[in-house]
Amino acid sequence: MFNGKSAEPIEAGAARAREVVGTVRRIEAVEQIGSELLAAGFDRSDIDLMGEHKEVLRSLHATYLDPAGIAEVPELPRRELVMRSDDALLSILLFGMLSATGALIALLLSFGGEAGTAGILLRSVIGATFGVLIAFAVRKRVSRFSALQKDLQLHSIAVFVRVRDANEENVAKEILMRCGASNVHVHEVLLRRRIPSPFCAALKT
After folding, report:
1. Strand 78-80 versus strand 15-24 pairing type
2. How many CB atoms lie within 10 A of CB 113?
3. Phi and psi at residue 63, in whole multiples of 5°?
4. Interior angle at CA 14, CA 7 and CA 58, nearest 5
5. Closest Cα partner for 29 from 159, 140, 146, 145?
6. pLDDT reading at 70 higher than 70
C-alpha cells in the first residue's frame, strides 16, 4: 500500500502549483468536467488526469485503493485531458492546415509558371504527409481515450485543475462538484515543468 511519502526527490525546475482536485469514476463525468472547464475559460494545458494505472504502480512502487490518497504526491504520473470529441477536432485542424498549405503551393507555382507535373507531385507528397499525420494523431488520441475508459472501469481517477486566483478556484470547485466528482478539495503541490503536446495546445475547445 502507498504510505503517503514521495517515491523520489523532486529535481530542480519544479514549480509549486495550486490546484482543485477531485476524483471521478465515470467517463461521462470526465468529459463533462472537461467540457465545462473549457467553456468556462480554463486552458486545456491546466487540466490533468491521473496517469494510467500501470504507470502509477510503476512510478510509485506501491498499490493504492483511493486516488485521493496519492493526489498530493508530486511524482504521481499524469496525462492530458482526453475526450471523445478530440479525434474530430484534430481532423478538422489538420485538414485546415492541409488546405492552407495546398493553396499556398498553388499560388507560388502560379507565380513561377511551373504548375506542371512537379507541382502536382509536390502537392501529392504534402497531402500524403498530412494524411499520415491525421491518422497518427487521431489514432493516438483514440488509444489514450480507450486506456482512460479501461482505467475507469476498474477504479476512480483524480482530476487536477490548476488555478491562479480565488475566482478560478471557486469556479473549478463548483464544476467538479456539479459533475459528480468526490473528495473535491484544493491543494498546493510541486510539479515538474512539462511541455504540453502541440495537439493539446491546439485543442482549445
Report:
1. unpaired
2. 7
3. -95, 165
4. 30
5. 159
6. yes
Q: What is the pTM of this model?
A: 0.67
Inform me whether the pLDDT recorded for 81 exceeds 50: yes
Number of CB atoms found within 10 A of residue 99's CB: 12
Q: What strands, in cross-sheet order, belong to the sheet with 78-80? A: 78-80, 47-50, 157-162, 15-24, 182-191
Taken in order 135, 137, 138, 143, the sign of the CA dihedral is: positive
The grid coordinates of residue 71 equal 493526489
**CA diameter of the chain:** 71
CB atoms within 10 A of CB 95: 13
Give the long-range contacts of residues 125-128, CB within 8 A, separation 24 or more.
126/98, 126/101, 126/102, 127/98, 127/102
Task: Output 96-104 pairs: Cβ under 8 A, ≥24 positions apart.
Answer: 97/130, 98/126, 98/127, 98/130, 98/131, 98/134, 101/126, 101/130, 102/126, 102/127
Mean pLDDT value across the chain: 75
